[in-house]
Amino acid sequence: MGVITYSQEFTSAVAPSRMFKALVLDSHNIIPKIVPGGIKSVKFIEGDGGVGSIKQTNFGESAHIKYTKHKIDALDVENFYCKYTLIESDIKFDKIDFIVYEVKFTSTDGGCICKMSSDYHVTEGVNLKEDDIKQGKDKAMGLFKTVEEYLLANPTVCA
To answer: Contact at 8 Å (CB) between 99 and 118?
Structure first.
């Protein structure tokens, strides 16, 4: 099995503490509220949100995927860092065994930078191309921007 890493970086006008809370700590409450058509619910099926917890995301009717399950591997609230692994989905990945994500928010003048890396653990002998994961990267960027817009319009949320 090989590992292919893709990284992306987003900038935001929102403080790192608020973005981290909305996208990581309180995502099970915030995200279904602001993208109800895309994400029906996010629930902890094991644990309370700390390391070792398993979170299931249930997608809307129009999505090509019904659910995903992620396990939280590391969580550093003070430094706005989270590492988690996609452990299950209703879609069978023929090229990918599992994916490990790392997210870190850092302060900038009046906002933050979000650095995200995705380690794709690919099936032996498989060549994963950028196009194979572009849709997931685009959806991550769209969700990030949607959450940012929501927080800018609602300054008391996740404050």
So the answer is: yes
